[in-house]
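Quick start: load a record and inspect it. Here is Receptor-type guanylate cyclase gcy-28:
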Amino acid sequence: MKHKVESEKPWLKDGDSEETNKKARLAYEALLTVTARIPETEEYKNFSREVKEIAKKEFDFDYKQEEVNTFVTAFHEAVLLYSLALNETLAEGYSVSNGSIIIQKMWNRTFDGITGKVTIDGNGDRDADYSILDLNPNTGVFEVVANYIGTEKQVVDEPGKSFHWAGGRKHPPPDTPKCGYDKSKCPKKNGVSEITVVLSVIVVCLILGSAAIYRHYRREAQLASMTWKIKWEEIALSTVSKKMRPGSKLSLTRVSLTVS
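Running the structure step on this input writes:
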């Protein structure tokens, strides 16, 4: 059983500093609490008051500001369900020790309890009601923003209340993280592929450059090895050749070459 302040402001600790409580409150803004629904009927209020009186009178326990735990009402309704099933079993002539018949009487039935209509399904599970609590960023108090109705299997928004999603979101976060819970959908980029591509380009450029340089020097070497190659300055034309008109077709035998 928790103190009312602990239930409404679980982020607030008297022994912690203001800065620590502020950080805790910011973290709690991302929290949604699902708890058993606390009815607001007169029957439940009367039952809660009687429980507090009995606890004080017979066990010297003072609830003070604490709320009566919903498990107390659940236990009360469980005993009520058993008594109803037991009475029906005895009325049909079965023994009180016939557990299978008693269980059959408990399943697939609805009865009136402290919290309202109590429904038990075919598996023996109760279609319980739950409340969803969200932290109000203005007051710092957890408030009921929606209720799950077990018999109807639907969520009903609390009038005048709304969810406050952390991080400034306007909508609820996705069901699964973008990268998955184990980040398998977003493999880490270690840069190996990028480095491989860059190195490959550099190697190709070096090979092509080396081939071009080798071809150039090889051609120069081949030209340099030609023994018949004569430098232009070593050739002097005769007067006849100098007087030739451009385009004249003279036989090379008529041109006297003087090699100095």
